[in-house]
Amino acid sequence: MTNTRSAGASVTARRPQALIAASILDSDQARLADEVRRADAAGADRIHLDVMDGHFVPNLTFGWKTIEALRRVTSLPFDAHLMIAEPGRWTEQFLDAGCDSITFHVEVAAPQIAPALARIREAGRSAGLSVKPGTPLSALDGYRELLDIVLVMTVEPGFGGQSFMADVADAKLLAARGWLAPGGANEVQVDGGGRAATAEVIGRGGTDVIVAGSALYRADDMAAEVVRIRSIASAARAATLV
Ligand code: DX5
Ligand code: ZN
Q1: C-alpha to C-alpha distances, 97 to 54, 91, 101, 201, nearest whole angstrom
Q2: Which among 119, 123, 62 has a CA at the least distance from the CA of 89?
């Protein structure tokens, strides 16, 4: 895995703290609206929405109609993470549902990638690409001018509650900044195994947004866990900023 494009990239901070995006994948699916409200009340900065089609990943979750319904529940930004084979086919539906950012995978069929990214940005939302653990950042070559977000997967996509892949974080997080469009939203996000125990490594990589699913929804005190992850990561991130 060679991810050297910007290993020494200087990390410019658009904001002093790392943000926490609550993934509802591990929440009580019979009470999704309440679970989104719970993350909002607990101080999460974003809601991370894992859409899976059972083809791109071996799991099936919810679609744009669910997102459209949840949109009425909170004013927090919605980060859609599309683990689907044909993101280009469904972009309009996720835009209409109220997603503030839409990130899909660079491993999908290439012809749909640039047009979908351009359409998301044309609609005034943030566009992102995600790389699986085994995909090098060089797969993002050619899309840099269109990327507001690079989402680094630190687990194999498809399920919550998996173990964090520290080697992937070390190799990719800081380097990923080299694939962000100048003047874009400028966000490296990490997704998979985000929790207090991994927050220092994640922060040291200069990460802007940390997705946390099971760490939050299995916590006794969600608000305390949000604060813990954010403070540990932000302290480590501050040491990386120049
Ligand atoms: C996995 C999803 C992640 C997952 C994170 O495919 O993309 O967002 O829900 O869950 P945790 O934080 O439990 O690893
Ligand atoms: Zn995700």
Answers
A1: 21, 10, 11, 34
A2: 119
Domain residue ranges in the chain: 18-240
Q: Look at the pTM and tell me if it is higher than 0.85.
A: yes
In this structure, is the dihedral angle defined by the CA atoms of residues 240, 231, 77 and 209, taken in order, positive or negative?
Answer: positive
| Residue 50 falls in the annotated catalytic set | yes
CA of 240 to the centre of ligand 1 (A): 25
The pLDDT score that the predictor gives to residue 240 is: 85
Closest-CA residue to 91 (of 139, 33, 51): 51
Q: Which ligand is nearest to the CA of 192?
A: 1
Please check the confidence at residue 241 and state whether its pLDDT lies above 90: no
Residue 203 Cα to ligand 1 midpoint, Å, equals 18
Q: Would you say the CB of residue 155 lies under 6 angstroms from ligand 1?
A: yes
What pLDDT score does 16 carry? 78
Per the structure block, which two tokens stand in for 155? 């687990």
- Which token pair is 221? 């005190």
3-state DSSP call for residue 53? strand
Rounded to the nearest 5°, which phi and psi values hold at 192?
125, 110
Residue 44 has pLDDT above 90, yes or no: yes
- The 10 Å CB-count burial string (b at 16+, else e) for 141-171 is eebbebbbbbbbbbbebbbbeeebbeebbeb
211 Rama sector, left if φ>0, alpha if ψ -120 to 50, beta otherwise: beta
Closest among 86, 84, 14, 17 to 49, alpha carbons compared = 84
CATH number of 18-240: 3.20.20.70
